[in-house]
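Quick one, T. Sequence first:
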Amino acid sequence: MAWWRLLRARRPEGATFLLRRRNSSPGIDRSYGDARLVAMRAAALQGGAERWPDIRGHLAAAEGHEDLTFLVEGVQDVAHVERWIAEVVAADPDDTLALLVSGARYVASAWQAHSGYEPSSVSEEQREVSRERLLVAETQLSEVAEREPSWAAPWYFLQVSGRGLRVGQEEAERRFEATCHRAPGHVAAHRQQLRQLSVKWGGSRDRMHAFARQAVLAAPDGSGLGQLVAQAHLEDWQEAGGDPDSTLLRAPEVVRALHEAGARSVHHPAFVRRRDWAVGVNTFALAFALAGENEAARAMFRMVRKLPTEMPWRYLDERSPVAPFLAWRARVGA
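Structure tokens:
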């Protein structure tokens, strides 16, 4: 059953108006409720180079490596950035934070060059534009890494650019290890490496699941790395066709793995709702729902409330990820 038919199939007669009222508010918040990112994204959208000091101030005050990565990633998808960041870099070539933002923006724009298209419909021209942008990103981010050898952020974005350039598993692992050497337990870096290890990107199912399990077992209680187990099973599900009625995740060993990972992370008292914590909870929400674990899925939907995230819901609808979020929330009765 397609996800857009879930609401019609699962809701009782006469519930249309109530459901519309309940589901009218959720939307993708690219700031994840973080006041700093709200201000930074507004500055990136509304102003040009003159607003850079406002953005830079937040970056300079980042609370560690993961926080800097989070903040840069939070502005990299703002298209307006590319209209003024080159001017900022040219005005002060020694500003490494500006160069980092520029490199990250090139990564985002490279992926956006063919985002929303089926691989078979992406033209050679689009692929070449994407490749050119990724090569610029690689140059800039490598320079940042050379200038600031202790920073994890440039290596994180090099993970993403490397996947786009298909640098291979060995080089991808080197970049991942470079990120985690500087920031052990870097959740976003682990998410990127898990995708790198998926079948889609030249890895294997066994390596991907082994990576996820090892990372979770090595992590402290309450770590956001628990989501890797759910993410890995969603990668399996997508690779198998992404059928909403698939029973792939209902296998007893999958259900046990999901509950174990949830107990170590999102369900653990030490779990902290900081930065992009909602990504992990949304990932568990979809995984539990697909596994037929409606009670566990409801708990995730209630935890995340009205904070759907692009991933994992863009697996179901790349252009409108909120729609499947609402459909699955209704399906499990949250």
